[in-house]
Specification:
With 418 residues, the chain is α/β, with parallel strands linked by helices. The protein has three domains: 96 residues, no CATH class; 116 residues, Nucleotidyltransferase, domain 5; 128 residues, no CATH class. The protein has 17 helices and twelve strands.
Length: 418
Amino acid sequence: MHVSLKTLLNRVERLKGFVYESSQLSDSMIEIQLRARCGSQAQCSGCQRPAPGYDHLAPRRFQFVPLWGLMTFFVYAPRRVDCSDCGIVVEHLAWALGKRPLTRSYAWFLASWARLLSWQEVSRTFRTSWECVFRSVEMAVDWGRARMDLSGITAVGIDEIHWQKGKFLTLVYQINQGMKRLLFVSENREEKSLRKFFLWLGTERSAVIQFICSDMWQPYLNVIAERAKGALNILDRYHIAAKMNKALDEVRAKETRALVARTRGGKTKVILTHSRWCLLKRPENLTATQSIKLKELLACNLRTIRAYLLKEEFQLFWDYLSPAWAEKFMDQWTTKVMRSRIEPMKKIARMIRSHKPLILNWFEARGQVSLGAVEGLNNKLKASIRKSYGFRTANAIKIMLYHKLGALPEPQFAHRFC
């Protein structure tokens, strides 16, 4: 069966009030001429009500989705209308995005590919500018966030990320079972940064939140206590593990420097050299070589090894079923650490004591909310930032994160190009 280009366009891009008149093929592009349907009245671009015609402007080109690898353009001479309310304005063009030189369908096409590739790769692949890709993603984000379904948000995770030297972003995720997405991004990591989220969410929706997973950053804890009084605040176990690893690494580095200076190339220096990941990784994740190295280290009476054993011992805390027994274990562990005379680990013990109720909330929330979702979403976020390197403004990186991690709705199209 013979199918013309006009038939295909009417199937995938039907334009009410306009017709595809003709098409012209050159070496590198397809130009498709459009005209107003006979008897149709133009609509005002301001109020979108029918208005009498005034005159015609020069033909304009609007870039459409590439067909068979060829750049494709709509060519149309817009009419101006004399609207009783808006005055003399250009008519409303259903396929256009204001004065931008690309069609709405092409903008959504670019935005869809920008979820999979970096913006630079999309612009190179489809022979357009980085600015066009950015504006297309911005359009998709604005459209999606205006139509987000915010009902049923009962569990959220709060974290911050360092994206430039001295610059942070506050991130809020929804971590309900079956719905994990980025809800809100705000600059800096201050109290007002998190307050913006609760203002955006609204008082009624904030009151529905039952669980909030966060780290120990005090400005966040202050705002959570103020704006979500009915929610159970759980301290993220991954942040506690990260702080313990940091303390252990500090002990190892300090002791290594001291032993190297004292022994000047002795046996102890060889034992502690290249031992960092043997001590920081979980035992089940060690390679065969790292396991042998760890066995050698455990035979030594070093402060680093004592700190390592304390860190590993605390992992038993998360295996308890009873919060009462977990609290008893925590008290015994912190007492042992405070007697260890290892200052970085003592700092961790003091931190755990000061946040004991929030840490014990983990047992109440276990099984009801996906507590590891924040770390998983953070990993995806960091991968997206690495893939889309070169962002210089907070606005651009926020748009990118909403687009890739926000699970934003999209309009229904007659045909999807990707």
